[in-house]
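On clarity, I found the account of how folds are encoded harder to follow than it need be. What matters is that the chain and its backbone geometry are given together, residue for residue. I therefore recommend that a typical entry be quoted early in the introduction. An entry of this sort, consisting of the sequence and the corresponding backbone structure tokens, reads as follows:
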Amino acid sequence: MSAPAPKRARTRPPLGLPPEPVPDGFPGRVTFIKSATSLRDTPSSTLPEVALCGRSNVGKSSIINTLCNRRQLARVSTTPGRTRLINFFDVQARVMFVDLPGFGFATGDQREVAAWGETIQGYLADRPQLCLTLLLFDARRGPEREEEELLLWFRQAGRPCLAVMTKADKIGRSEVEASRKKAAAQLALPPSDVIAFSSLTRLGREPLWGAILAAARVFSEERPGAADELPEDTA
């Protein structure tokens, strides 16, 4: 998947926000809203949206399950490149998680793959409710060219993006911090904008929630009418 061309600039800095306190027991109610095959099918909720973006099999579903204290909320696929759906989850009416199809292992009819890519690019470029993208990469391989290109596009477009180093339990404990700092330097991010995460040990769960809730709060304060910006065919 190639990075979409930015269509409009935003003035808000990508992050730099102090983490929001995470309430005890949060989140409580988490509801699967729908799966969309096109932008026309996406919900018109006014909730700030947090999209999970990364290679197939990088652990997007596992992160959603861990963050939401659920085992099977998001289905974990063992076959990379098969999922073509954009899945929406309402998290206690505070934020909407958006599980985007993975990139890097797309399989199937070439026309289908091209249409899928255009849908994802359109969502990332134009979705008014999108307040934060989590760019995931595997701790064992580090960020690669696609991750670097996507992060560059997010930076140029002013789209807030946080890098998440998944599967941190797959490397030695002594390697986690060094790998996180190395990835931050490679991506030209402050170390605080790269979070090490493990769905097995739950490492990084609280810091990631703190960043998500902070981004959602600021977005809700600055863009209370985000849904009004939706194109007519997606409202």
